[in-house]
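user: Kindly work through both lines:
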Amino acid sequence: MKKVLSIVLALVLLCACFAGCGNAAADDGVTKIGILAPAVTHGWVAGVAFHAEQRCIELKDAGEIDEYQLYTSNNAEEMTSQLDDLKTWGVDAIIAFPQWEGMEVPIQQAIDDGITVVNFDIEIDAEGVYRVSGDNESMGVEGAKYIVDKIGTEGTVVVLEVPTSGSVGELRKKGFDETIAEIAPNMELHYYATQFTREAGLADMADILTSLDHIDAVYSMDDETSIGALQAIAEANRTDIKVITGGGGCQEYFKMMPENEEIWIQSALYSPLMVKDAVDMALDVLAGEEVDPVKIIPSAVVDRDNCDEYIDPTNTVY
């Protein structure tokens, strides 16, 4: 009987040991975070990668994550390959910023494999994906309201749209178009396709200025596009344009606002700092917390009247 009791006791202790070891392993489990970002072709994109990595460094120093890896890519194929590398590495959560079509399938596969995926900025069709984004549509709404406030309900407005930017450009254009139709239906609108770069803003605005002899305002969706457009306006010695909008959170653009008294320079804030919220969301999901699948961060309007509140001398990235 004693022998039987000894065996039972040994088995109980062995099970307790396995349970304890298992709990210890769970408590000490390695948390691996992956970041997939586009290669830097734009200051805002550089800001996203920088702030995502900074947040991971902060969390690692605080002991909240163990390891992280940051990849940048030039296209969907390269990002897909990097996603596969992260899966092989044993990643627990991925913060993805897929700026191209073609990432829906690999991201869905990662989710199906049990990996938490938080998309930043871009909306894609994948079941179970989380997303953190600014309010793109409200940026268009605010841009329309700002232009009407400065020039009235009638005038000639150039719209610098970016069809290649997917849902980002679509939503900003939607907000602008619908608001203008509501509050200034007689506004004359001219649409031109451009890119989210100052080089494109410069080249495209220079062409536009030769085709239109009078422009009251420019609806631009991006701060860097606007920087290029402002250069084109200055080089053409045009004095008819009274307003230009933007979007993002570019320190260089903010500093231009009080320096130009002839043109109202506006930006609808869409800061790359938001990516830190995406990293935090991924950790909350891994911790089993209840998380809304989509977090939309409201936009604020910045111009010469309040830009001093947003200028950060320590920010040398974007």
User: Anything to note?
Assistant: The first strand starts at residue 32 and ends at 38.
